[in-house]
Design a protein that fits this description.
Helices cover about 75% and strands about 0% of the residues. The protein has helices at about 1-35, 40-65, 75-85, 90-115, 120-140, 150-160, 180-190, 190-210, 210-230, 235-260, 270-280, 295-310, 315-340. The radius of gyration is 21 Å and the shape is globular. About 45% of the residues are buried.
Length: about 350
């Protein structure tokens, strides 16, 4: 057991080292194409842009560790942002509460269908995604009529720096952030989205590594039948994981809405595939039981840098989605081969 644990820790350590190397290589290439990317504000922008994806990927990590997946996550994120926007006239707290309730209900339905009814997670969540698209398409002209503009407070929370450094810049400084005083540049990178992502990441890492729920998530992903025979109420754990996934997706969706300023039904569509890709790049097996959120965080940063690189060379969104899909397919094939040989 001790030898096995040492082997696992060694493998994880090598995986993180490899991911760090890939991240560094992408950063160097991106910087060589545009020297601005070597500046401190540009580094802060990577964390800013990666925050929403990191939150969605956190939800996918939890699901995939149990051997599941949530393909309705993009519409859950979009729906949460849409509800907050439309219902903000009733008060921000009411709107956020309704969005939270929406995430809990959808997550619970997914979890109950997978855990109690034994439905395949991919089929169930794909079907739920289609249902949600229909509900919100009809809702925008009926029971969800209202402004699609995100409340100003959430726009600020989704875009602003924690500390306003505008007053720190000397009069001689130009509008180019590379000319800002060094300390002001560093402080300006500390945006609210990055802070929220960091806070949520610490909570997710703690749950997975230090709590009974985290151990059960890994146990179910490793062998759900054995966990069931050991007395674990597998369906309850699965409901919990899908609810957690939905809430994390909702937070990410609200941040996306705040960053765009207004909500459309396609708000988070382009984030579904990257949220899965970030998890598999980070080393979490699609079969469950292996991986963790540290790797997913690295995967998120790698994809964000890759997106920045592709934007620098004027690649379209379609090309990005093709690359994300190729990454998922390649790694899924790799994990399947590893499972066959184990």
């Amino acid at each position: 057991m001790i030898k096995l644990k040492m082997f696992d820790e060694s493998r994880i350590s090598k995986s993180m080292l490899s991911l760090t190397g890939i991240l560094f290589a992408l950063y160097i290439i991106t910087g060589l194409l545009d020297s601005y990317n070597f500046s401190i504000p540009a580094i802060g922008n990577i964390f800013y842009l990666g925050a929403a994806l990191g939150l969605l990927a956190a939800g996918q990590t939890i699901c995939m560790l149990t051997g599941g997946i949530d393909l309705s996550l993009a519409m859950i994120a979009t729906g949460a942002a849409f509800i907050v926007s439309v219902k903000s006239s009733s008060g921000l707290l009411v709107a956020l509460s309704l969005a939270l309730l929406y995430c809990i209900v959808i997550g619970a339905i997914n979890g109950l269908a997978v855990g109690l009814l034994g439905m395949n997670p991919l089929i169930m969540t794909l079907g739920m995604n289609a249902v949600l698209i229909g509900v919100f398409t009809v809702g925008v002209t009926t029971f969800l009529q209202g402004s699609s503009t995100v409340p100003e407070a959430l726009v600020t929370l989704s875009t602003a720096s924690i500390i306003d450094t505008s007053g720190w810049v000397f009069e001689s400084a130009t509008a180019d952030p590379r000319s800002w005083p060094f300390f002001a540049s560093i402080v300006d990178t500390l945006s609210w989205p990055f802070f929220i992502w960091l806070l949520v990441s610490l909570i997710v890492l703690f749950i997975l590594a230090r709590t009974g729920l985290g151990r059960l998530i890994y146990a179910i992903g490793d062998n759900a039948q054995s966990a069931r025979l050991a007395g674990v109420k597998v369906w309850q754990v699965q409901v919990t994981t899908y609810v957690m996934c939905a809430i994390l997706g909702g937070i990410g969706g609200i941040i996306l809405g705040g960053q765009s300023g207004a909500v459309a039904l396609s708000l988070a569509n382009s984030f579904l595939l990257p949220s899965v890709a970030a998890v598999v790049i980070g080393g979490t097996s699609i079969m469950g039981g292996i991986g963790g959120y540290k790797g997913t965080m690295m995967g998120t940063l790698i994809l964000t840098l890759l997106s920045s690189l592709l934007t620098t060379i004027n690649s379209s969104e379609a090309v990005k989605q093709m690359i994300y899909g190729a990454i998922v397919l390649a790694l899924a094939w790799t994990y399947a081969k590893i499972s066959e040989n184990s």
